[in-house]
Amino acid sequence: MRRARPDRLHERMNANAMAAEIESITRTYANGSGTVTALGRVTLAFPAGSFTAVMGPSGSGKSTLLQCAAGLERPDAGEVSIDGIRLRGLGETALTVLRRERIGFVFQSFNLMPSLTAAQNVELPLRLAGRRPEANTIEAALSAVGLADRAGHRPSELSGGQQQRVAIARALVTRPRVLFADEPTGALDAGTSRDVLRLLRTLVAEQGQTIIMVTHDPVAAAGADRVVFLADGRIAGTLDRPTAETVAARMTRLEVIA
Predict the structure, then answer these.
(1) Residues linked to residue 25 through DSSP beta bridges, in sequence order
(2) pLDDT at residue 6 in the model
(3) Average confidence score pLDDT of the chain
(4) Which of 36, 64, 100, 184 has the most CB atoms at less than 10 Å from its CB?
């Protein structure tokens, strides 16, 4: 899987502001007569042009972290910033606009509209924002994921990997500051997963895209620059320049402790 040269990556990270930051965020949920702490005073920074994987045992807070970092949930305490903009003071309308313009989402289930073509699915974020999609913009987005020749195909006419690439093109068409990916290869076979991960890696290395990805797969995590491990809603360590073997070993230790 292609990586940016370490010296170029270091230069890119230092040349840009943080794309996303979470500062001492806490998120709790009601559980019967008590509460469960999904995240407890978690602090992380995500440099522009970096690829971060988030891992942890079931119930460790991975999905909650992604939801809070992406502005889909508000933490009970702490601060989230996207591209230097603090989310705590934003009303729902302003938050919706920020998510639409600065954040992209990719999910395990693709979430494509079955009646629309690949091109029409990619257009959706622009149309929802009241913007008229330019044909060359949509073509460029599909070309970036290797699907320029599938623009007129509906999801049922595409493989799982192709559908996920359409979903990635849709997430990128607004040129978001951060791309959040929740188990993006979870529904794909091993070979197709490698293709999607190679695409994500290329977006980081060649276009400077910032990606934050939740995954349970050590092979997927090995494509990132850094892996953040969670356990019981807290940071349980990080790993730079991961390999599938080092990630798996760290996860095994966390699961034994859990």
Answers:
(1) 42
(2) 38
(3) 90
(4) 184
pLDDT in tens, 72-93: 999 999 999 999 999 998 999 9
Reading across the β-sheet that carries 18-31, which strands appear in turn?
Answer: 34-47, 18-31, 77-82, 85-86
Phi-psi region for residue 237, left (φ > 0), alpha (ψ -120 to 50) or beta? left
**CA-CA distances (angstroms) from residue 62 to 39, 121, 123, 143, 213?**
9, 28, 30, 32, 10
Cα separation, 43 vs 21, in Å, equals: 8
CB 46 within 8 A of CB 210: yes
Listed residue (85, 108, 63, 92) closest to 177, CA to CA: 85
- Position 187 scores a pLDDT of 86
β-sheet bridge partners, residue 183: none
Query: What contacts 212, CB < 8 A, 6 or more positions away?
Result: 20, 46, 52, 54, 66, 69, 178, 179, 180, 181
Q: Burial of 68 by CB count in 10 Å (0-12 exposed, 13-18 middle, 19+ buried)?
A: buried
Give pLDDT, residue 130. Answer: 85
